Amino acid sequence: MDFTALDAFQRDPYPHYARAREEPGLVFSPELDSWLVSRYDDAREALARPQDLSSAGALRPDVSLPAPVNAELAKGAGGGGVVLSADGEAHRRYRQPHNRGLSASSVATLRPFIAERTTRLVDGFAGDGGAELMGALARRLPGEVIGRLLGLDPTDVPAAVRGGYRATELFFRPMELDEQVGAAREVVEAQHLMDGYVRRRHAEPRADLITGFVQALAPETGELTRERRGEIVSSLQNLLLAGHLTTSALMGTMLAHLLRHREQWEELCARPELIPDAVEECARFDAPIQGFRRRVTRPTTLGGTRLTTGDTVFVSFGAANRDPARFARPDHLDIHRRPERHLGFGHGVHACPGARLARAQLSTVLEELTRRLPGAHLRTDASVRMLPTLIHRSPERLDVRW
Length: 402
Prior knowledge:
Blueprint: H1 3-11, H2 14-22, E1 27-29, E2 34-37, H3 40-47, E3 53-54, H4 67-73, H5 88-101, H6 104-126, E4 130-132, H7 133-138, H8 141-150, H9 157-172, H10 177-203, H11 209-217, H12 226-260, H13 262-270, H14 275-285, E5 291-296, E6 300-302, E7 305-307, E8 312-316, H15 317-320, H16 355-372, E9 377-378, E10 399-401
Parallel strand pairs: 2-8
Antiparallel strand pairs: 1-2, 3-5, 4-10, 5-8, 6-7, 9-10
Helix pairs in contact: 4-10, 5-11, 6-8, 6-16, 8-12, 9-10, 9-12, 10-11, 10-12, 11-12, 12-16, 13-16, 14-16
């Protein structure tokens, strides 16, 4: 794979999306090795047709791993299916504990914890005159929140979160062999950490989400089989990735864009009632998950393009959210927009089950920062450089002064 071309695409995909929308039908993207679905209506249609466009391989790795790395991964405790890449009955089965654990009542119960942790994290840097907000806030709060929801001991949260980051690096970034082996070992360590929780919650249930997954995916009595444990561990790892990395990413991009658009930041400081709309607009403007792949299961037509069995399409939420046929002046951030039915959190049966939890954290962070640090601004001597990724699009760093 040409990672130079892929990195350039991923750091700024929007010009590529705009060119694709100008062409009739779908456009084949060599960077993605997929047909690019770039129009809003086509994207919604694709996401509503799971019988024709399977989720299998939704997060196909960009890196082929050598034998020594696969040998390390084989020592892990995962290996089961996950909601992201499942279809039909398997998807419904994996989705059920997500829906229950991330319900409105569950999120409401977590709100005091979100508020308390946000305040404490901001307390840690508010008096310093500046901070790097990805490390000080965006990569910390969502991990603590998802750890609380799952029922992790706070001391185990950093290792669980790091395992998620290392997994994305391993499968989507080029690394030297020794780095790959090290990343694989950390992924395996995180799996065994979660496997320990699964065993304990099976023996002694608690009122937490790990127990919810155990009871939903392994309702039978008796000792858990290796297969069942692997299935639950994989689902929990997937939830950690989705519940932490994507929220962290959107938190970072949201703050970066609002601080770039100074007049909109200042309006939020003066009118906090606009914060919910600002969150939705930021999710539309620069979605943390830029899209997922779908595999064609039978000959079909999408967006005027004839597709054959086995073809791969990349359904781009990021491109759809900038479609001028759906959103006026789509490349302009506007906190007054109220972008109804945007695809920042997906659509259809695979729509993000944690969107409600993400919104709660994002709104709380904006409320806290606009109230306490209204003078916050991007450091003029530090540029905002985006990570080369389409699955948790965010700044590498976010250096802010006040």
